[in-house]
Amino acid sequence: MFDVSISTMKRDLDTMNNKGLLKRVPGGVTTTKGELATPTSIASYANVNAEKKLKISGAINEVIEDGDSLFLEVGSTCHYAYQHLNRKNLTIFTPSLQILTTKNDNVDHLYCMEGEAVLPYLIIRGFPLLENLKRINPNKIVFSCYGLNEDYDLVGRVDYDNAVLRTLLDMRGEKILLLDSSKICVNNTFFVPDITKIDVLITDDGIDEEHLNKIREKGVKVIIGK
What we know:
single chain, alpha/beta, Rossmann fold, 30% helix, transcription regulation, transcription, DeoR_HTH, Transcriptional regulator, DeoR family, DeoR-like_C
């Protein structure tokens, strides 16, 4: 029908697979859209809203105490926060290769979470990570996400991110969400209701007053980094 040979089609599919334009699977191909990798490099993404992220990370020690055990999620905001931790004798669990390869003298124990290493983006992901999260019990869970929608539900970039968010929200420790003001009132197909499971939101001073009041009305403590 397409006036090309089967061997040519297979060769073209292999080429597209190697370039990351699609993914070969048994019996066919599938789109790479919605895969774990972000559409930009980790270095360039870290520079997006860097000033806001620095304000957030500067406030992280308001909710951390000496001797705390923390889960720290992937992402540039969490990496900034990790670098600003100045409480002593900390224990950290993380799937962030950025954090795992960054020295902080205040961290006594640094644990690597199990899963698949996605090296271009310096993260560990996959379903082994979800199972591993159920076997740890840190007293603080520090994470970020794609954003909050207009109803203040947590928004994941892809559905797998929401699976991670749901698992984190079911953990026993205090939930601390790091989110810059540009990520409030965004929309996506995937979300996790709702923000009431968050204990503390740390954001920057660019947050709209209306959003600030509505989030506080839901029982969430809001700390504004300046």
